[in-house]
TrEMBL record:
Entry superkingdom: Bacteria
Keywords, ordered alphabetically: Cell projection, Cilium, Flagellum, Membrane, Transmembrane, Transmembrane helix
Bilayer-crossing regions: 26-45, 51-73, 199-223
Provenance organism: Lysinibacillus mangiferihumi
Name of this protein: Flagellar assembly protein FlaJ
Length: 235
């Protein structure tokens, strides 16, 4: 994540995911940079050490990057959450499929048992199916999930919608979903163990920079007072 924060190679992809215009995000980055810079400048002026104003561009850069860090953090949280919600969605789908009769009706019923934010994408999928049962609609839903398993499962569900549901196919999908659920439980444990290491670095760096800069300014401020006092002492 730290490398992506520096390179920003996925910026366009993330903006497309959130449907956020580049111009709007550009303005947001400027605002973050200006706010951080102004806070830093206010501290410097209160402490009457204007020499440190030369560091203002660095604080603007931190604010500028923080906007992208926030975007990355939000995207990652959505990806992680969806990766664990997807198996739950599939379990509900499989449980409701025999009583609903077909894929379309099952998906509509499954919405009631699908948590946010996955339920919103499921509603979009249903609306697309109502306009025409196209494979791409299922694959776009899988793309939102962002895993190879999602592509395979959603393609299988599309096949169900076109060719009908066979008991053997359902049993095969049930076994796959069970394995997927078990793997996601293990991943969740590992994710919680590593979350602080993966996503706490940038805020910590900002905090250390601001606290360290503030401490340095305070130190120089008092050192100047000491120096002035020494200069006025009689020799």
């Amino acid at each position: 994540m730290f490398n992506e924060l520096l390179k920003e190679s996925l910026l366009d992809a993330h903006l497309d995911f959130f449907r956020k215009p580049k111009k709007k995000f550009f303005i947001q980055r400027i605002l973050y940079g200006v706010i951080v810079s102004m806070l830093f400048a206010m501290i410097i002026m209160v402490l009457k050490t204007p020499i440190w104003l030369i560091a203002t561009p660095a604080t603007f850069y931190l604010g500028w990057k923080f906007a992208y860090f926030k975007l990355l953090y939000t995207k990652n949280n959505i990806d992680v959450k969806n990766s664990f919600l997807f198996p739950q969605f599939l379990q509900s789908f499989i449980a409701l499929l025999p009583s609903s009769g077909n894929v379309y009706q099952t998906l509509k019923t499954t919405v009631n048992y699908t948590p946010d934010p996955l339920d919103k994408e499921l509603v979009k999928l249903i609306k697309k199916i109502e306009q025409g049962n196209d494979r791409n609609a299922y694959l776009e839903f899988a793309e939102y999930i962002g895993s190879s398993e999602a592509y395979m499962v959603m393609n299988m569900i599309y096949q169900f919608s076109e060719q009908g549901v066979e008991k053997k196919s359902i049993q095969e999908l049930e076994r796959y979903i069970q394995n997927l659920q078990e793997n996601k439980v293990d991943e969740l444990i590992q994710y919680k163990m590593n979350a602080s290491d993966k996503f706490g670095l940038f805020p910590i760096l900002i905090s250390l920079f601001l606290v360290g800069g503030f401490a340095a300014v305070i130190f120089l401020h008092y050192m100047r007072d000491v120096t002035d006092a020494l200069n006025v002492m009689p020799k």
